[in-house]
Structures are given as structure tokens and as C-alpha cells.
Amino acid sequence: QVQLVESGGGLVQAGGSLRLSCAASGIIFSINTMSWFRQAPGKQRELVASITSGGSTNYADSVKGRFTISRDNAKNTVYLQMNSLKSEDTAVYYCNAVRVLTALSSKQYWGQGTQVTVSS
Description:
The protein is an all-beta fold. Helices cover about 0% and strands about 60% of the residues. The radius of gyration is 14 Å and the shape is elongated. The termini are far apart.
């Protein structure tokens, strides 16, 4: 199993910054992609950013140029630096990890979520 613990959420004014952290523990040696998702009230959960074990990144169009995902493999931690925050970034942010089981199968794990609220 893999356990994911997020931290760093909070209340910030529009234009401000926050950094989220997600620490992974457990069976972590086969984790490939780690991602941040978010879910706003009344909306579906959406992918914000992802990073592979090799460092390749992917971002939602809505956060490109403002958010940066990074990964410290030595600390088993993934970060999301969020700058120029907007009110529409308000959501619960979830950490996600994909662990490779076989060449054809994998398993996803989720953190408990951390609230980010941007006041305008």
C-alpha cells in the first residue's frame, strides 16, 4: 500500500502564492506518476499537474505558467508551487500516485485532500 499525506493548503488573497506538499510512504519504489487533482464545489475532479518518475511534467491549460509541479525522489515528496492564484483556483487539492504492478496493470492512491481558498 501507499499512503499520501498532503499539506500546505490555506487561505490566500488573489495574486498570492501557496506551496502544496505530498509525502508518500509505504510501497513507494514502484510509483511512477504523481499528480495533483482538484475539485471545486459542484464540479468534477480535474487534473491540475502531473510528473513522472523521470521528471516529465504535464499541466492543465488553466494553470500553465502559474503552477509548477516538482518531485524530490529522495524525500518521496511531490510539490505544487502555485503562483498568481485566482479565485477560480479555490478547491480541495488531492495528491495522486500511480504504482506500477505489472506491465499491464497499475493502482492509484489518493491523499485526503487539502483545502485551498483564494479570496478576491
